Amino acid sequence: MGIPCKTAAGHAEMAAREQRLSQRHRLLLLLVDGQRTLEEVVEQGRRCGVPRGYIDELFALGLIVIGPPPTAPMPLDGPDTLGPGSAVSDTELARLDATDGSFAQARQVLLGLLRAHAPVSGAVMMLRVRRARSRAELRALLPDVQARLQRVRPQGETREQLLRVESLLVS
Hints:
single chain, mainly alpha, 2 domains, two-stranded antiparallel sheet
C-alpha cells in the first residue's frame, strides 16, 4: 500500500509528548521509520497487541502520512536536529567510528540495548548516546543509560552488556 513516514508533527510528538498519546500509539509511531511498509507496521503492531485502528488515528492526527513527509524526517539512525546536545551528521559519525572502533562498538551496543528494551522511553537517551563524540562523553552517559534500562528491565539482564561497553571504552 505504501510507506508511512512521520510528519514534522510526528517527530515533535516523539520528542515532546504534547498530545499525551497512549503507549500503543507511541509504539506504532516509533515503528513508522520511513522504511517499513504500512502492512509491516500494522503487523508488527498487531504482534504487540495494538489494534489496526490505532494507525488510522495517527493518520487522522496528522502524525504520519503515506509517502515522503512534508519536511525532512529526523530518524534516530540519521541526521538529527532536535533534543539535547548539538546535532551530529552521518559523515561525522562515520569519521568518529572509523577513528575508534571500540568507541563505535560501544555506541552500537548501547543504542541496541535502548532500542530493544526502551524504544519509546529511551528515545532522548538514544539521541544523547548518538551525539557522544568521545569515549569520555559516552562513559559519562552510562549511569543514565543504566538508570533508563533498569526502569524497564531487571539489572542482571543488561549488566553484562554494560560491563562490556565499559571495557570497550577503557581499552
